[in-house]
Design goal:
The chain has 168 residues and is mostly helical. 76% of the residues lie in helices and 0% in strands. The protein starts with 8 loop residues before the first helix and ends with a helix.
């Protein structure tokens, strides 16, 4: 048995394989949809390589899981088999924050949504220095927005940086 749960290693392996298979199916579906929508270089510039890399990793993980012969116990690896409850709560909070980030994109723009998302996550995860939260959030928001404006061919909804980018 690996980890702290009374479940068999086989059940845990099937859970992992199922998750990886669903993830691979989603990546394949997304790549197929992107190619069907517009098979141009500009459309597939980011999606294509990342999706292909993701699919290769999925195949590698499935093969490794099925062919892995030696097992390492939790005590030897130092990595628990299950995520502790507090970390699960943190993951759910970050997922909810990301859903709010995506919902806010068309309303307040990519730049401000990114700024607020990064600041909220930093504060939630324990950062209390206001200058650090503001500076890091601003730097990441500006970097991602400028990068997106420079590489994407479709209009990106922005509140502030889009107007400044148009002046250049």
């Amino acid at each position: 048995m690996i980890g702290l749960t009374p479940e068999s290693d086989r059940a845990s392996r099937y859970e992992h394989l199922g998750f990886v298979a669903v993830l691979g199916a989603f990546v394949g579906w997304y790549l197929w949809g992107s190619v069907a929508a517009s098979p141009t270089f500009e459309n597939l510039l980011l999606v294509g390589p990342v999706a292909v890399l993701g699919l290769v990793l999925v195949v590698f993980i499935i093969a490794q899981t099925l062919l892995r012969g030696n097992r390492v116990t939790e005590a030897e690896s130092g990595i628990p088999d299950r995520m502790p409850v507090g970390r699960t709560r943190d993951a759910i909070a970050v997922i909810i924050a990301f859903v709010l980030f995506v919902a806010a994109l068309p309303v307040i723009g990519f730049d401000l949504s990114t700024l607020f998302f990064i600041a909220a996550i930093l504060i939630y995860l324990g950062e209390r220095r206001a200058v650090w939260v503001a500076g890091l959030s601003l730097a990441i928001a500006v970097g991602l927005t400028v990068g997106a404006l420079a590489t994407l061919t479709y209009p990106l909804p922005t509140a502030i940086l889009g107007r400044l980018w148009g002046l250049l």
